[in-house]
UniProtKB/TrEMBL annotation:
Entry's Gene Ontology molecular function annotations: zinc ion binding
Coiled coil: none
SMART domains, sorted: ZnF_PMZ (SM00575)
Species of origin: Triticum turgidum subsp. durum (Durum wheat)
Keywords per UniProt: Metal-binding, Zinc, Zinc-finger
Name under which the protein is recorded: SWIM-type domain-containing protein
Pfam families tied to this protein: FAR1, MULE, SWIM
Composition bias, Basic residues: 692-707
Basic and acidic residues bias (residue ranges): 1-11
Keyword Transcription: no
Length: 800
């Protein structure tokens, strides 16, 4: 805002000669350079006096549309017009206008090139607001550009409007200084969301992806359409995910979860371990339903985005459709089933089976004694199954133990079905798989649990993506902190041994701790040399004896325990044999790069041949960080001095004009490029507006919390055991229904994709064509089938 100079005031005679009139009070003959300048002056005057301001009219010229005259009035000017709805309104709004005549009129002076006050009335016919309440007046409330940025950042960070408003108020010294009220805060957020969804949910989602690609060309996404050209499945991965998968994509877990978005779509993530054994994300997806076709498209898209690099091992849950898709797409990967889910199914299916002899004894001896025997037998069967899953490393021992356990249950049950896929979960069959120590999808489920702290079921599709970014950033910040600590904190080497000193410099801290523990175990081992060459039998404490074959010329030590082949860290048995062969340093071929401090070294290229850069805006961010710190410190120092503040504002105004002029020249130099792509943007906007997201059928709302299987089991136990003679079918009917997918824990829910004959993918995999509707049976349906022929039909060789 600029005020008139002394010469302008002196032209008006005696009206401007009185020094008692403050400079912020309007006077006849005052001159302003622009209408906006005059409006700012009138608003400021209203704030000091205590009334609201309003623009009565602006008269533009018919020739050049220049404003020739205008009038600014009090907010209470005039009277409210008669409303035809008055008789139908029970509680009409309170009257505001009082016919106040206070006003300031301006007329253009074309010769001088300014506007002059030609009409001025300062008397009001109503009570003025106090200075303490003036900030509530609409004309005194305005959200500045920087405040709007902070409001939107707080919303994207998951901070509620109430907390964000309070934080902003405290930062400036109170709500009266902030410049807007809480209602304005909420209105701005509503406008922001409407602006973001201007193309609809599907179009706004595509616009979000296009903006990401513009920021970083390595960002990749893919969508799949049905024959009605509605978006069904969505996959995306950013530059950091591409880099992480290139370095740590040897073992992948994939799992889906529900209740993270308003569209009720299953949300899935591909995750793995980094060198600090922390969770890293390789990609994410939103599916329409969990069918074979959907998973097949997803896995093919995932491989295409990651340059067709297959993982060595992939873990999933027991979903049949997912398992079939894994076997058909990840041809070079070992498929493992989540042992946690299998154990939950074991608790569910094995704990309710008893021998017929025990049932007969219960009838004779009484219900109470029978229940005690059941409690004694149940953990015995589960312990046997747990041993088969985790302990037995010899296949013959596993078969014998499983047959013994199977003999305790006389009917064909879930146990027979899970035996068909024993190669995917039993320890003895997974000994030769590279797993990094993972045996389940708990890594994915742990991430899903963390994501639910940021993702809620009422989020629209665009807010879902932004809050997913928050959750991912939390993981990445933790990774950066681990990287900092690994470079700042020295590892604690317990023995001054060359191999340990070497390992402390090479391995990441957590991997070094594991290696040092193996080294300590090697010292406590017992060694027996066998007759042939460098073959040794190594025994540690009460553990099983392991056979190690050494080769001093090639500096190798192959152990029968297979720990290095599974985890990538040399076992105590092999370390002992290396020491016996006088090899005091760890050979290079026993140091996996993925476990080292330099695991991320190297350049990664995307599928287009470009070098993947995690943050192309890094230099700009650093410059902004430096300037922001300087300006904040300067503002803090000069704020107590009014003279310094005035000088700083004057300097900033002058510099702002100069900088804006230079930036305008930069934009003009890029104008030709913008013109060449204008038609493309217009066509893209039309495409965004035409995009449609396939909707899922809404579920009936309930106020009750959704119980998981364990909660329901606990609830059933409180109700007591079922009556004698009650069949398993009747028991099953009493089980509560689940809102859960087909993972083998809850009852099944079959999903279909209607009219999926010509699904197409716009970005990654080209077009896919499926000719049949596919209904995926749940694993629970499979494993609870009581008829032998049904089990044999479902558990065929190509089951997964």
């Amino acid at each position: 805002m600029e005020s008139t100079n002394e010469g302008d005031h002196q032209d008006n005679g005696s009206l401007n000669t009185s020094s008692a009139i403050p400079s912020w009070v309007p006077q006849m003959g005052m001159k302003f350079g622009t209408v906006d300048e005059a409006w700012t002056f009138w608003v400021t005057y209203g704030g000091k006096v205590g009334f609201g301001s309003r623009k009565r009219y602006l008269n533009p010229s018919k020739f050049d549309r220049t404003i020739t005259s205008c009038r600014f009035v009090c907010r209470k000017e005039g009277h409210r017009g008669k409303d035809k709805r008055d008789k139908h309104i029970k509680e009409p709004r309170a009257e505001i206008r009082t016919g106040c005549l206070a006003r300031m009129g301006l007329t253009i002076n074309r010769e001088a090139g300014n506007y002059e006050v030609t009409d001025l009335v300062l008397e009001h016919n109503h009570i003025m607001q106090l200075q303490e309440t003036c900030h509530f007046l609409p004309s005194q409330r305005k959200i500045s550009e920087i405040q709007a940025f902070e409001i939107e950042i707080a919303d994207d960070s998951g901070i509620g409007p109430k907390a964000a408003y309070e934080c902003a108020s405290r930062r400036v010294g109170g709500p009266s200084v902030l410049g807007y009220i809480r209602r304005d805060h909420k209105n701005h957020l509503r406008t922001k969301r409407q602006r973001e969804l201007m193309y609809g949910e599907a179009g706004s989602m595509l616009k979000y992806f296009q903006d990401k690609v513009a920021q970083n060309p390595s960002f990749q996404y893919a969508i799949q359409l049905d024959n009605e050209e509605q978006i069904t499945n969505i996959f995306w991965t950013d530059a950091k995910m591409l880099i992480d998968y290139a370095h740590f994509g040897d073992v992948v877990t994939f799992d889906t979860t529900f209740g993270t978005n308003k569209e009720l779509r299953p949300f899935g993530v591909f995750v793995g371990f980094n060198q600090f054994r922390q969770t890293v994300i390789f990609g994410a997806c939103l599916l329409y339903s969990e069918t074979y076709e959907a998973f097949k498209w997803l896995f093919e898209t995932f491989l295409f985005a990651h340059n067709q690099k297959h993982p060595r091992t992939i873990y999933t849950d027991q979903d049949v459709a997912m398992g079939n898709a894994v076997e058909d797409v990840f041809l070079m990967a070992r498929h493992g089933l989540c042992t946690f889910h299998i154990m939950q199914n074991a608790i569910k299916h094995l704990s309710c089976h008893k021998k017929e002899e025990e049932e007969a004894e219960e009838e004779v001896e009484g219900e109470g004694e029978g229940e005690e025997e059941e409690e004694e037998d149940e953990p015995h069967i589960l312990a046997d199954f747990s041993a088969c899953m985790y302990e037995y490393r010899d296949k013959e021992t596993f078969e014998e133990a499983f047959d013994t356990m199977r003999g305790k249950i006389e009917k064909q049950t879930w146990l027979d079905s899970i035996y068909k896929v024993k190669e995917k979960w039993a320890e003895c069959f997974m000994m030769d798989a590279f797993t990094l120590g993972m045996r389940s999808t708990q890594l994915s489920e742990s991430l899903n649990n963390d994501l639910k702290n940021h993702l809620k079921a009422d989020l629209d599709i665009l807010r879902f993506f932004k809050h997913f970014e928050r959750a991912v950033q939390v993981k990445r910040d933790a990774e950066l902190n681990s990287e900092y600590e690994s470079r700042e904190l020295l590892p604690r080497v317990k023995m001054n041994v060359p191999m340990l000193i070497q390992a402390s410099k090479v391995y990441s801290p957590i991997i070094f701790e594991s290696f040092q523990a193996e080294f300590e175990r090697s010292i406590a081992s017992f060694t027996k040399k066998l007759d042939v060459g460098y073959e040794f039998a190594i025994t540690i404490s009460s553990e099983d004896e392991c056979k190690v074959i050494g080769n001093p010329f090639e500096q190798t030590a192959s152990c029968s325990c297979g720990q290095f082949e599974r985890i990538g860290i040399l076992c105590a048995h092999a370390i002992k044999v290396l020491d016996l062969m006088n090899i005091k340093l760890l050979p290079e071929h026993y140091i996996l790069k993925r476990w080292t401090r330099e695991a991320r070294c190297g350049t990664i290229q995307d599928r287009s041949g470009r070098n993947v850069v995690e943050n192309p805006m890094f230099d700009i961010d650093q410059r902004y960080k430096s300037l922001n710190r300087k300006f904040m410190n300067l503002a803090t120092q000069v704020a107590p001095s009014e003279e310094c503040c005035t000088l700083l504002e004057s300097a900033l105004d002058s510099l702002t004009k100069e900088f804006l002029g230079r930036m305008k020249n930069v934009h003009q130099s890029n104008h030709m490029e913008g013109c060449s792509t204008q038609v493309v943007h217009e066509e893209s906007n039309e495409h965004l507006a035409a995009a449609r997201l396939k909707k899922k059928s809404p579920k009936k709302k309930t106020r009750k919390r959704k119980l998981n299987w364990i909660d329901k089991q606990h609830k059933n136990k409180k109700k007591g055991a079922p009556k004698k003679g009650q069949t398993e079918v009747k028991r099953a009917k009493k089980l509560p229904k689940f809102q859960q997918r087909e993972d083998g824990i809850g009852p099944s829910q079959s999903h279909t994709i209607e009219n999926n004959e010509y699904w197409s993918n716009q970005n990654v995999t080209g077009s896919n064509c499926f000719t049949d509707n596919y209904i995926a049976p749940s694993f629970t349906d499979l494993v609870t089938t009581s008829r032998v022929e049904d089990i044999e039909a479902l558990c065929r060789d190509d089951f997964f």
